[in-house]
Design brief:
Elements lengths: L1 H27 L1 E4 L3 E4 L4 H28 L3
Antiparallel strand pairs: 1-2
Helix pairs in contact: 1-2
Length: 75
C-alpha cells in the first residue's frame, strides 16, 4: 500500500522535473548528447528535436499515469 502511494507522488514529480529540463534545453537552445556533451541545436538539430519530443512525451506520461491508473483500475 505504501509503495502505491509513493508511486502516486513520485511519478508526477519526476514528470514535472523532466518537463523543466525540456524547458531548460529549449531556452538554452541545446541538448546533451551522450559521448559528445552539450550541443547547440545548430550543431545537432535532429538530436535536439528528438530529445525534445521524447522527453515531452515521457514527462506527460509520468504526470498523467497516476490519474489514468486510478481511472482504469478500480478496486
Amino acid at each position: 500500500m505504501a509503495e502505491f502511494e509513493l508511486y502516486r507522488v513520485l511519478s508526477p514529480l519526476f514528470g514535472f522535473i523532466m518537463l523543466g529540463y525540456v524547458g531548460y534545453c529549449f531556452s538554452k537552445e541545446g541538448t546533451h548528447s551522450r559521448g559528445k556533451g552539450w550541443l547547440s541545436k545548430e550543431e545537432a538539430p535532429k538530436t535536439f528535436i528528438a530529445n525534445q519530443i521524447i522527453y515531452t512525451i515521457l514527462s506527460i506520461i509520468l504526470i498523467l499515469s497516476p490519474l489514468l491508473n486510478s481511472f482504469f483500475i478500480k478496486k
